[in-house]
Structures are given as C-alpha cells and as structure tokens.
C-alpha cells in the first residue's frame, strides 16, 4: 500500500490509497490501476477515482512507485568544482532548468561530486552498482570523453549537454550553436560600421571554443574582412585575458568578440588601463549573457544561451531513451540570441568608408 508524503487526512495523518478507494467507492486495486494502468478501467470508473484523488490531494510515494516499476526516478548529474572567476552562474542556470524539467516529469536530479579537470568516470560506477539512478545527464563534454562509450556499452541511458567533438558520435545530445552566436555578433558589428573586428578566444583544441571561433571567422570571410592576426587566445581569467587582448587593441581593432563574458571582462580591464572607453572607443561582445553582463557599466552585450530549452530537451531525450533503448539517436542544436547593451552601440565607424589597413 502506498502512502502520500504531503497531503494530511481529516485525522491529521497522510492520505492513503485505501482512503481514496473508500472515497471513490472502489477497491484499492482499482485506485492502483487508475494511477498506473488507466486503460484497464471503464471511463466512468476512471473519472470517479481521479476525482477522489484530486479532492483528497493524494500523491503516491516515490518509494512505492519505485518498487512497482523498479525505477528510482532519479537522474544522475556530476558536478565539478568551479574555479574562481569563471562563468559558473551559466551552469547554475542550466542545473536549475534541468531540475525543474525533471521535476515536472516526475523525476529528481541526483547530484554527485565529479573531480575537476577532464571528464572522468568517477562516481558513475558507484551509483550504478547501487542501482540509485535510471540514467545520466552529462555536461562539459570534450574530445576523447570516455563517459559516453562507457555508458553505452553498459546500456545505461544518458544524454549530453554538448557535442562529443569527434567524428564518432555516441548517444543523444543537446547543444547550443556557438558558431551561430558569434556569427550574429559579427553581423551586428558590421552593420554598425566596424571592419576591424578581433576575436578573443580560448586556446585551440577546445571544442566549444573552436566552435565559437568558427562563427566569427565565417562571418568575417563572408564580408571579405581579414582574419589573419585578429584572433588571440587566453584561458578564462580576467587578468590573462587583459594581457592577451592587448595586441588586438594595439593594432587598432574597433571591436572585439569574446568567447565568454569572462574574457570580455579582460577586454574591459585592458581598455580602462589605456584610458579608452568601452563602447565609445572599442565595442565589446561577450558570450553566455552571465548575470555580470547586465550590471557592468557599460552593460556588456553578450550572446545568450537558451538554457531553459536545453534543460527541457535534455530531460525529454533522456526519458525517451529510457522508454526505447533502440530508437535512433536524437541530436539537437539550438540557436542562441544576441543581447545588445551599451558596450556595443548601434553606430560605429563609417560603414561606407573603405576598411583601413590593419594596424592603422
């Protein structure tokens, strides 16, 4: 017999399945069928039971459901420690969206500690050995990531927030089209009159970083603008980014597209050190639209990821995989949106004038 964990009865205790059965004038087994196998009941009986369930605010316990279905209704998610001064709030927003979508689907997210650095299998085998999760959501996907192949070999459902960044794709994933975002940033800058547009990115070899650099490069070439010497690299740190962007500023860049808001903050610092104004002298666009972007002065224009949609789609794909292990893999690439703020005015250098030589 399953019991509610939230709804008190008239006597002050939890509402039970037997109480609902008495209210509806049916057997406890009929109530169980209404909740778990409604197709077995006549429509009028099903309606009577559902009305009683609603009136008494009955909620079956998750433990009882797990015993019946052999499902924990738990989804595992490994959390890595966030280094200081990173865009951790972005992943916080994703985790909130993921948790909300899972909750609406009757599941819960079970967090476990993952070591810092490259993705590892730490925690996965332990959880599976104790049968505590039905599947996993992976984030921080990278080249040579061992998790997808390991889980697939064992028949464990999973979905990735992020591509695998290799020719061999395994499993379902949802990702944000970073190249689309930086392409849109360049388009906006060109429309505002900029021609000397630099890119401040992460070191090559990062799948996400290379994808964002690819969009900048694609848009620059589409407008016949030179890219050679206009891309610099830095780790996601304000001080490091401030030093890395200086060659672009020394060469006369009028705009900088950054692979993250953290890198864009480094550009802010470098400009202030030389008494130049963000927006007026050099336009800056970041990526991730972190909470910092809107409170900076001037506000940082940035590419916003649709994290709520990512969370919903991750849960949808994972539940679909749990229901049908043999279905073809589904892979979704969602488009981000450009959020314009004062760091990127709508007007810049004369758009009709010839591009000045780089460094002039």
From TrEMBL:
One of its GO terms (molecular function) is DNA binding. Residues 15-69 form the HTH lacI-type domain. It comes from the Bacteria. InterPro entries: HTH_LacI, LacI/GalR-like_sensor, Lambda_DNA-bd_dom_sf, Peripla_BP_I. Residues 340-360 are annotated as: Disordered. Residues 351-360 have a biased composition (Pro residues). SUPFAM superfamilies: lambda repressor-like DNA-binding domains (SSF47413), Periplasmic binding protein-like I (SSF53822). Keywords: DNA-binding, Transcription, Transcription regulation. The keyword DNA-binding applies. PANTHER family: HTH-TYPE TRANSCRIPTIONAL REGULATOR GALS, LACI-RELATED TRANSCRIPTIONAL REPRESSOR. This is LacI family DNA-binding transcriptional regulator.
């Amino acid at each position: 017999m399953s019991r509610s964990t939230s709804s008190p009865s008239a006597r002050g205790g939890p509402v039970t399945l037997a109480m609902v059965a008495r209210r509806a004038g049916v057997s406890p087994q009929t109530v169980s069928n209404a909740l778990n196998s409604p197709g077995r009941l006549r429509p009028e009986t099903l309606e009577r039971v559902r009305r009683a369930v609603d009136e008494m605010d009955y909620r079956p316990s998750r433990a009882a459901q797990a015993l019946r279905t052999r499902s924990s209704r738990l989804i595992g998610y490994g959390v890595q420690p966030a280094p200081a001064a990173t865009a951790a709030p972005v992943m916080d927003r994703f985790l909130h969206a993921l948790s909300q979508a899972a909750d609406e689907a009757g599941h819960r997210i079970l967090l476990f500690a993952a070591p810092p650095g490259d993705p590892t299998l730490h925690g996965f085998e332990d959880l599976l050995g104790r049968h505590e999760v039905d599947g996993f959501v992976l984030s921080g996907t990278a080249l040579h990531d061992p998790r997808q192949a390991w889980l697939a070999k064992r028949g464990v459902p999973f979905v990735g927030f992020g591509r695998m960044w290799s020719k061999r794709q395994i499993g379902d994933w949802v990702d944000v089209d970073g190249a689309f975002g930086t392409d849109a940033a360049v388009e906006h800058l060109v429309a505002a009159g900029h021609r000397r547009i630099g890119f401040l990115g992460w070191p090559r070899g990062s799948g996400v970083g290379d994808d964002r650099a690819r969009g900048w490069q694609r848009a620059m070439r589409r407008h016949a603008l030179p890219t050679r010497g206009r891309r610099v690299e830095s780790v996601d740190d304000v001080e490091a980014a401030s030093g890395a962007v200086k060659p672009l500023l020394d060469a006369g860049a009028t705009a900088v597209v950054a692979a993250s808001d953290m890198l864009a903050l480094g550009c802010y610092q470098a400009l202030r050190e030389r008494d130049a104004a963000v927006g007026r002298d050099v336009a800056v666009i970041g990526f991730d639209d972190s909470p910092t972007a809107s409170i900076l002065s001037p506000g940082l224009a940035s590419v916003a990821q649709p994290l709520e949609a990512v969370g919903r789609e991750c849960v949808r794909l994972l539940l679909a995989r749990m229901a049908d292990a043999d279905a073809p893999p589904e892979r979704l690439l969602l488009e981000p949106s450009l959020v314009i703020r004062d760091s990127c005015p709508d007007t810049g250098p004369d758009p009709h004038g010839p591009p000045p030589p780089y460094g002039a």
